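Appendix B: complex inputs.
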Amino acid sequence: MAHHMISLLVNGQKEKLLVPSNLTLLHVLRDMLGLTGTKNGCEAGECGACTVLLDGEPVNSCMVLAPELDGREVITVEGLAKDGQLTPLQEAFAELSAVQCGYCTPGMLMSATALLRRKPHPTQQDVQEALVGNLCRCTGYQRIIDAVMVASRTGGAE
Amino acid sequence: MKISESGLIGQSVARTDIIDKVTGCAVFVDDIQFGPNLLHSRLVRSPHPHALIKKIDTSKALALDGVRAVVTGQELSARMGLYLIDRPIFAADRVRYYGEPVAGVVATTEEIAVQAARLVEIEYQPLPAIYDPVEAVQPEAPLLHPDLGEYSVANFIFPEPGTNISEHFKIRKGDIESAWEQCAVVAEDRFRLPSIEHVPLETHTSIALSETNGEVTLWASSQSPFAMRDMIAQGLGIPHNKLRVIAPMVGGGFGGKAGVTMEACAVVMAQAVPGHPVKLRLTREEEFVGTSVRQSLVSDIKVGCDKDGNLLAMELTYYFGGGAYNDYGVNIARAAGYSCTGPYDVPNVKADSLCVYTNYPVGSAMRGFGMPEIHWGLEQIMDQLAEKVDLDPAEFRRLNCVRTDDEIVSGMKMTPINLEACIDKVTEAIDWGKEEKPTAPNKKRGKGIAIMWKAPAMPPNPGSAAVVRFNEDATVNVEIGGQELGQGSFTVAAQIAADVLGVPYRKVTVSSPIDTKYSPYEWQTVASRLTWSMGNAVKAAAEDARKQILETVADHWDEDVDDLTIKDGLVISFKSEREQPLDKMVIYGLPNEDFEGWKGGPVVGRGHFMPTYVTNLDPETGQGTRAVVHYTVGAQAVDLEVDLDTGQIDVLKIASVYDVGRAINPDLIMTQIEGGAVHGMSSAYESLKFNENGEPINPSFVDYRIATIADIPGKIIGDFVETPIEDGPWGARGVGEHVMVQTAPAIANALYNAVGIRFSDLPLSADKIYLALDEKLAQER
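Resulting structure:
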């Protein structure tokens, strides 16, 4: 297997890594950088549990190959709160108890963060469209929608 | 009933785990780092639904660079099981479903393990397979377990050796033959429900480590670390104190992570490479193909009432498709048997509830444990009967539903409930009886109702234990063996302890992960039993600790214990108005006068709970004094419309109301009601599909659709009523599973109301509805 040297920004930190060609971003984060907040749900791009921001866009990290990451910027769920201060979106998820088992939550937060950055005042339908690729088996989704709507009023993604 | 000490009971305090879960800090089993010593593994699964294993050749796999071990069932004859010991860890001489583990490969990387798994050569002799539980009970059906008579079995399970019947539960109540003669109206039908998957977002994952001294540690995503330890320890002959199960946060369970699924395979593989942790992580495809499923059910139901609509007689046969191994599933058929009538008062009942072996994946516990299965038919046949006797479905249910102190189907006296109040609330919430216009001309609108009951289905005596431990600063650690699956059990445990101890909720931490080496015993986190059973244990432990504190302070002040209380972390005397902060004294005690010695010491409270009052049932009649600890009941009503051009159902409203006994944390109840309504709705459209070789053909999120955020009902109106029970903390009982039990039949009843077609088979797929509409239209022309 060929290896590649890549440089990237992960949650604001510069990382220089030697990665095999077939390694995915999901495994770069979880296995090489120990950022286990990003969850592995299907490794087929179908459940959204591994969603992160790549140059600001939400992507399924299981579908991105590591050599593509050279010179790019990744934000994971660990990169949302700054100095222990939750983002308004995280606050809203906590306040509304939009979480049960919590396995889908990091992916939900990243997709919703991307939405709020793109569209600070979304409609309920915008939220449903933006999060349709993020599966949840516990909550029934309504509180997740409500949390994004609350965050859009209390300060958005940041 | 003693009232809450600090007013915390009944308050919607925030979840204990919420900050960890919104920051990515919550640790699930796959998140634990094991370093370079970690080995990876892959299971070799059967490509046949039923076959004899003639020969296994592992030499090519072993020759691959990086392969450390290959294990098979050939050198391991162990079987496991919860109620019936019928399941091998790796198939030994015979496979009984497509996907059954036959061998396991351990290698330095996952890629090598995958490659090596393909190099294990297995010679099979295919046998005829059987899939339909009704066909599988026929005398000519191929026999899956010729040795059924030799398996160990719990004393309340009744297998029929020489057949595929692993459990036969009977109800013979009243005089069914003469009752039919008194019936003015009878309805009869057959209903079918397919197997579905639990679909937790986190797939089954385990890491096992066998030390060179033989001690084994297993990290697992598990609803039941103690039952898992018990089953694996017994199966592999490991002393319980040498097998340690550590279970961190669970990424969704729904019953699929109860008992043992693939975790014993990880242990056996680890034993082949002592000193190395071995990770076994199921792929999403394996999660669909190789884990337990909700059992399928064929139910034959005949029910009759008098001219006024009073139920008189019911005859039922339940054929549960239990899959290849029924070690857990036998108790589903039993639970369905003793609750076979649903929440109705029926004086004459004949019922046979069978768990049947088939060559499909292992049927097991899933949210509701037999109840969604039987209510699918029950709640539709009641509508059919109501229509025949010309009664409104809600009115018919009010007339016949079970009430407190009724003698129910098993002969037991019904524990306190108020089902009528639930019916009233859901009908009100959706304007029952008011005809509403569809939102478009190509749509039809309808309303439906369904009610339910469910008792915790367990052995008669499952126990819970808890320890409450103070720290120097008067913060508290609550130690339990119950698991946090997202339902909020840790929150409830902390809330109960804080209330009893008189300390602020924020000062209480639930010790996690659950670790069988340190955590007190808990049977399993299943059956919606934790708020009730674990709650009782935590309450007892906190009361024990409270007593120790008050006795020490009372002695110190020379006052009576009854004059003291604890509030906000201060011991207060009503009499002398003295105050004693808890910090320091809960560890160091208090000095005698002039420091002439000390009293007290580290405060550790212990408590346990085990129901001691469940009795045996007669094996021929199913009658007994107390079949179960108690029942939870509830009602759901649905308002929906159907697109006549596509057959697509759009649920506009689900009203969902349950009698929870006492709401410890109302908001957590609402989260269950909301999540359950969507899970229940999703389950009405789900089905694991198989080809003629017994192979699941939709093992992915694309082909097996679960509800997405775009599919949710327009509105979920949740509520609860509170009729306290005697044996729960402050009267509380469970509600986690109940909230999806009757959603599918409520939808089916609303669908009938909308279009006049009764669908007796799940799933309610759009194509099936469209074709039925088309046929109806053709007939009407």
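Residues 159 and 167 of chain B are 4 Å apart (CA to CA).
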